[in-house]
Amino acid sequence: MMNGVASAGRALSWLRSAARALAAAVDRSASLLLAAFLAVLVAATAVLADRAPLWNDELFTYYIGGLPTAGDVWSELATGVEQTPFSFYLVTQAALEVLGKAPLAMRVPEILGFALMSICVFHFVARRSSPVYGFVAILFPLVTTAYGYAYEARAYALVLGFSAAALLCWQWATEGGPHRRLAALGIALSLAAAVGSHYYAVLMLVPLLVGEAGRSLSRRRIDWVVVGSFSGALVPLLLFSPLIQAAQGYSTTFWARPTWNSAVRFYLNLLLDRTLLAAAGLIFVVIFTFTVLRSSSRSSDRQRPFVRPPDHELLALGTLVLLPFFGVLLGKLVTGGFTGRYALSAVIGVTVLVALTAWWADREAPIVGVSLMVVLTVLAGLRFSTRYDQATRDEKEQIQALQFLEQHSRAGLPIVISSPHDFFELSHRAAEEGGPRLLYLADPALAVKYLQTDAVDLGVLGLEDIAPLRVEPYRSFVASHSRFLLYGEHGAWDWVTSALRAQGADVRVAARNPLDGDVLVEVRRR
């Protein structure tokens, strides 16, 4: 028994020494390591951005952002076809003009936005603990599905970056000092940039207001400089109010209705994926082992004094974690729509709290912090490999689908794509690389009947004038064509197959794509 305790004590002593040595090395080279991390992050994300094919939502960015002038962009958004702010498209337009019309070029702003978030959470956490835990904070998002938005040409990574910048500037402003007003200006500009990227970024006001309210109560006075800086979030809403009004009336039924279940699913879908569950399991093992070793040894090591972060910061971070619920409330009361990625900034709150919890646990030596750095680095590498394989597979499936359809287009029958998402993506690749002429049959009323939303059909119709899309009304096309081919998985977003069957059309399988199993059917109108 005594031998076991002695062995545990020696093991714990070795762990302490190793963790302290590594943490000291990290502290000494924090700036260099941060620069190296950012270089690797940007390079690795650029590889994924160059590999992954554009998907449905990104094609909205591509075609609207590729319009010749800012006036053209405003006019297109004024139709209500897209609900993303005008300033986001100006950034995309600039990237396309400077870097060329390639997927990587269009995704550069998002890569930089994610890098900005990494810098800000590092400094926010390191300011309250040490660089080791700052690196835990920048590694943690890489093993969540939030990292997928780092190379997606939509606004979400920009929102992450600007929201984290607003949080860091708020931390600086509340500490006082000679640069307090400059930090407050940083809050205003960061919030304006976040909301100017996506309107739902206005949710970032909630945790900042809650945290500042707690600070005001403890100080017994309001810091009007800081509170006034929050008004920066309102500037884009005022500037783009005509576009917001146009977007509100565009779709009679939005595709993602706000429900409290959607807030719960945020944590399940965006945070608790397989990689993060594996990370959580390994982290639990590390903490449990450390706790057992510490309790079984009689170490004379003194615990370092723990300086808890200010209460107003913890209050803001806790509220930030709950952002999806505030997003659902906003959807129910104002917008009529909500999906989890609209509240993606909650990941920042989770990230910072995980890092600060590790700092709190490491009272004697940075064993948990160093272990988390190692575990999260390995898992981030595995995550990158998985994402690269998925991007390769997605591109292969698109190419194979077009080749499959090209073979069957020789029969001379029109080829209709059943899913609007598949149609948008395949039509884009066919236009870029050459391929068969593909059709989509649109009917917003029937889409509502079978899918309970007309948003996607209206989106395809709205982009028909600026994108190489061949869209025809469902009813007139079916009435004038006794035979045609229909391709797709005939599942989600496919209301056409249901409508044809309801009308008594003869639908027979003509061929099956051997790669992904999608079915080509021949439709004969009776």
Task: Give a quick precis of the structure.
With 526 residues, this protein is mainly alpha-helical. The chain contains 24 helices and six strands.
Would you give an account of this structure?
- By secondary structure, the protein is mainly α.
- The protein has two domains: 2-297 and 307-390, no CATH class; 412-524, no CATH class.
- The chain contains 24 helices and six strands.
- The protein has a six-stranded mixed β-sheet, with helices on both faces.
- Helix 20 (420-433) links the parallel strand 1 and strand 2 (438-442).
How is this fold's topology laid out?
Blueprint: H1 2-28, H2 30-51, H3 56-65, H4 70-77, H5 86-99, H6 103-128, H7 131-139, H8 156-174, H9 180-195, H10 205-219, H11 224-229, H12 234-239, H13 241-248, H14 260-271, H15 274-296, H16 311-321, H17 323-335, H18 346-361, H19 367-408, E1 415-417, H20 420-433, E2 438-442, H21 444-451, H22 455-463, E3 471-473, H23 474-480, E4 483-488, H24 496-502, E5 506-512, E6 519-524
Parallel strand pairs: 1-2, 1-4, 2-3
Antiparallel strand pairs: 4-6, 5-6
Helix pairs in contact: 1-15, 1-19, 2-6, 2-19, 3-5, 4-5, 5-6, 6-7, 6-8, 6-18, 7-18, 7-19, 8-9, 10-16, 14-17, 15-19, 16-18, 19-20
